[in-house]
Protein 1
Amino acid sequence: MSSSSVIINSFTTRSMPRRWFGDSTMSSKLNSSFALCRSLPLPLSPNFFYKQKRAANFHPSIWGDRFINYDYSNDNITHVHDKQVDELKEMVRREVFISLNAAGDDGFAHQLKLIDAIQRLGVAYHFEREIEEALERIHGAYHDHAINDDDDGDLYNVALGFRLLRQHGYNVSCDMFNKFKDANGNFIVVDVSGMLSLYEATHLRVHGEYILEEAFAFTTTQLIESKTTHATYSLAAQITQALERPLLKSPERLAARNYMSIYQDEASHNDAVIELAKFDFNLVQSLHKKELSEIIGWWKEVDFERKLPFARHWVVESYLCTTAVYFEPQYSAARKILSKAMVLFIVMDDIYDEFGTFEELEILTEAIRRWDINCMDELPDYMQIFFHTLLNLFNEIEEEMVKEGNSCRVHYAKEAVCRFIVSIAFISCTFNRYKCSCNSCRSCTFNRYKCSCNSCRSPMILAPAVVSPS
């Protein structure tokens, strides 16, 4: 396979900077969430609920057995490509970081563009330390007004620097954009590239930054007009993509694949960077396909399609979501565990929302609350299958964490999942089964329950994501 070719199959998908979590209040927020769950009122009498089981009639999986077989002969090609990737990484490190760092302030603008390209092409995880060091120096230049107060500074570079620094958790003032306004306080129309760069930067605004609110409205209008009048074909494609899905809201692998076609046609592109991106994309995609094959094998082994036919079979969709959480190769074990957890939570959701009777759900909820395999005999057959698989998954997580010496994390994951499952159990039962008895007064209460349910599901999925091995 040519180095310039890129395989386009099933996987095309932002990691948050660690700086954002330096003084994290996550622990207090989780405690508040747990307190909220404990304070939820118990559902009303089961007499209000439907007694019969209901068939949800979910659409069958569209994927069939497409991803179950993985060609392990690709592993030999992978080994060869790994060596080429290592060589290209060293070349990029010399050209982008070592040489431009030596250039000092004169190389900031060029380095910003290359760092942006590296990030958008999905290979930034190879250069985390170098990027942090470069941005630290650039932030110092911004702080010392060496860049943003430059009268000759163009909007494209100023907005690009602002976006990159904010993405990495630096506190950069948006007042630098005031110099791009006229005497009446209106933004000055500049080139389309500058408008697009400012538009992407506005998505990192925080509450109260009115200048970025104005910039967002202004650039949106200007880009819509420029798309059909003043932009080249390549730039028009970027504008269309940005208006539909800005960088901050775009799955990283999908954005990387799309940007390859754009970046390689730019006159100023770096050959080593684009070649590295292509090799790396193929290698990571091959790993993702292998992981998905293993997960589908696990799905076939637990045999939920036959044993729990009422549930949704969202295996491929669940795995694709995990690649949006962390796609990097070093998180392979975490992706597999999180994918399985998401599949089980979807099945659990269908048990509570669509199939189980109130009496059965009470037993399952108590079994999950106690987290005891001895509760198995009290459960109906189909719930035994689900509960046994759930326990096995967390045993698998614990085994992986023991290898890393972090087995204590599993206890907190179980505690979090138990609490959220119990809260969802009550909310889901009450809201979905009691619709026929809701009057206008009760509907307001149940709307609150529904919102609580949606809020609780995210931390339940985040628990195994956070404790999963790296």
Protein 2
Amino acid sequence: MTSALIVDIDRRSSETLRSMLESASISVRAVYDPAELTDINTDSGFALVLVSPSFVGTSGMDVLDYLRSVVPDARLAVILDSKDDGEEENYRRRGAEFALIKPFSQKSVDDLLKMALAPKVGDEDAGFMGMIGKSPVMTSLFDTIRSLAETDASVLIHGQTGVGKELIASAIHHLSRRKQKKLVTINCGALSESLLESELFGHERGAFTGAFRAKAGKFEYGNGGTVFLDEIGEISHDVQIRLLKVIESGEVERLGSNHVIKTDTRMIFATNRDLAEDVKNGRFRKDLYYRINVIPVRAPSLTERKEDIPALAEHFMRTYAARYEREVTIIAPSAMEWLIKQKWEGNVRELENVIERGVVVAASNTLTLENLDPASERADGGEVGSISGVTYKEMVGQVMSVYEKRYFIRLLEDCGGNVSKAARKAELDRKTLYGRLTDYGIDPSLFRKKPNA
């Protein structure tokens, strides 16, 4: 039976939603207490997660980011108190695919289930293991993946933000002898140090405030399978030491315990940082670097494979046209030419975001240049493009997103790519800023000054 998770402090509305979901033959679990979130993991098997953004986890944990990390395969919907296009767009940027507005109606719930539980569109043209591309750099990458799948060696995937490093890790796992076991993914940059330790290594009851029950870590859950640690360059020195022990011995000790648990996992790591430079600067341990960098794999940027852009753009157009029930079937030649000419600093993720926005605002079956570039920067200072068929709220959202991205780029340039310094200057929480940079496909490492040769 298909299962869903409701995360909301409002018990009454949650029970109403539970009843509606169960009437559609959905098995439901509801969480009202932040402490219960520690039970949620990749083994939970939820196909759909419905979460209220007002729900705050222990120690101020961002629940949306946490759920995206521990149940990455589930479709994510936010529960909102009222209709607000700007708020919906904000949560979509953070990974929510759908929004459910209170008070609930059976029709709105049924419509949500119809979209959320339908097979993802576009899989038939998804290329090799979900990766689209026939350029030389991609065919070479696919050959590398096939070779790596035959071994159990540790792999370090290096590439800019938005190039699809998680797809490479998934392909290696699903082609390997471990494919019948779990692929456990964790984004190391999205979690605080204490929460990351708990997620990776597990904890015993009473190990820290809020640890009301024992919990196994990712290496235990992934035993026999593959553990993928994304943004490995963001982990602290203390976590690096504990991780090194697991890599060397396969032994894990939960927080608050001296009991050694033996595990057998294949490990894949990914980063957008220059870890060799971090080793020189003392930011990353040399012994750990050599352990994870057994087989380095470089994920090419989109600018290195511009011949793949037409296929990617058409794939995303079909995917989002189906998701939003829009009759968009064609990309205008001028729009495609513009797509190919762009620098795409945010790579495939940025291209996908642009196509998604274009599909939403398109007024006909054709995706035009104006749909893709509503506020193109021109020599006269940045004239806004055509707004035909666009509502006021949509126009404001488009223009704001363009200038918000430019602001973050200028901010990182001023701060030399230092996210903590940029957050202080912008008077934003570091995690919030990091999330916004990820949304826009902005890689802070591109703004860090390189040492003189």
